[in-house]
Amino acid sequence: MSVAYPSKLMLFGEYAVIAGGEGLAIPYPEFSASWVINIESPSAFKSHLILFLNWLKENHFEDKLNLTAFETDLAQGLDIQSNVPIGYGVGSSGVVVAAVFDKYHKQIPSDLNELKSVLASMENYFHATSSGLDPLVCYLNKGVHIKNGAVHVVENRNILKNIKLHLIDCGNARSTQQLVTVFKDKMLNVDFKNIVEDYAYLSNSCIAAWLNNDEETLAAQLKLLSYLQLNYFEFAIPADMRNRWKTGLENNTEIMKLCGAGGGGFLIGFDVNNN
After folding, report:
1. Taking 70 as the threshold, does the pLDDT of residue 274 lie above it?
2. CB-side exposure of 112: number of CA atoms within 13 Å?
3. Cα pseudo-dihedral 209, 195, 181, 256, rounded to 10
4. Are 119 and 187 found together in one domain?
5. Mean pLDDT in the chain?
6. Distance, C-alpha 106 to centroid of its chain
7. 3-class DSSP string for the chain
8. Which candidate, 256, 221, 175, 207, places its Cα nearest to that of 26?
9. pLDDT-based confidence at 275, cuts 50/70/90?
10. Contact 102, 139 (CB under 8 A)
11. Is 185 exposed, middle or buried (CB count within 10 Å of its CB: 0-12, 13-18, 19+)?
12. Cα→Cα distances 247→97, 208, 216, Å
């Protein structure tokens, strides 16, 4: 009952993945969820678990999950304890899907892409068209690198010495689907599509540098990526965050980027020690 399912950060590749670029997501254990027994004072999320169970039954997940055991356990006080903020881009639904699959799966697909597909089909309850990336990271508790449509597991590491990340709270939740729709509409414009190609190149370069622990290249490419997002992804950057974003870049005090779709929730900030 003590397993903690971590939240996730889309470290690099937001929007680039939609355009065929790479993506890198990592677990973020500062937020997590775990199973608890809570008979007398069920959490606010308990009703959602019951609705999720009913949806899984209606959509015939009995071949993949032991739904009878899930239903029995819920009736006996099973609950989820989570501090993952909802609508902040850190996988609040992914942790729930990961927890349910881990506890009630009948078998685990040996192929990562198949596992991702199963988790995506479960998360469709929360998002009409889930990619499966969030629950996969939460379930594996490892980084996931998407390249050329294939899924690769990245062992968790924290060995960067001069680049540290932190989260910046925008103070409001947002809708990923609405922002993705705006992005897809903008992609109909040839000029914006060309910019996204440049953005995907920078994003891919950041991923390669991160995976190779090349801090010098990462810092340089990260700054270019941040400038590009500031100038061309205005639809995804809250207006009251633009001045901090711009000032940090100009003064070399902080490099900011989107965390997932942006628009609210969290942004990712990087502190780069140039000494």
Report:
1. no
2. 16
3. 50
4. no
5. 92
6. 26
7. CCCCEEEEEEEECCCCCCCCCCEEEEEEEEEEEEEEECCCCCCCCHHHHHHHHHHHHHCCCCCCECHHHHHHHHHCCEEEEECCCCCCCCCHHHHHHHHHHHHHECCCCCCHHHHHHHHHHHHCCCCCCCCCHHHHHHHHCCEEEEECCEEEEECCCCCCCCEEEEEEECCCCCCHHHHHHHHHHHCCCHHHHHHHHHHHHHHHHHHHHHHCCCHHHHHHHHHHHHHHHHHHCHHHCCHHHHHHHHHHHHHCCCEEEECCCCCCCEEEEEEECCC
8. 207
9. low
10. yes
11. exposed
12. 39, 27, 21
- 38-78 pLDDT tens trace: 888 888 889 999 999 999 999 999 999 999 999 999 999 99
Looking at the structure of the chain, the number of domains it has is: 2
| Shared domain check, 63 and 25 | yes
Angle at 51 between CA 94 and CA 140, to 5 degrees: 20
Same domain for 80 and 9?
yes
Q: Residue 48 sits in which domain range?
A: 5-154
Last residue of a domain, one of 112, 135, 154: 154
Q: How confident is the model at residue 216 (pLDDT cuts 50, 70, 90)?
A: very high
Q: For the domain that residue 240 is a member of, what is the CATH number?
A: 3.30.70.890
pLDDT tens digit sequence for 159-176: 678 899 999 999 998 888
Residue 134 has phi, psi (to 5 degrees) of -60, -55
Write the CATH number for 127: 3.30.230.10
Please identify which residue in the block is written with the tokens 């949806």.
55
AA identity, residue 170 = C
Domain boundary among 154, 187, 209: 154
Q: Residue 57: what residue type?
A: K
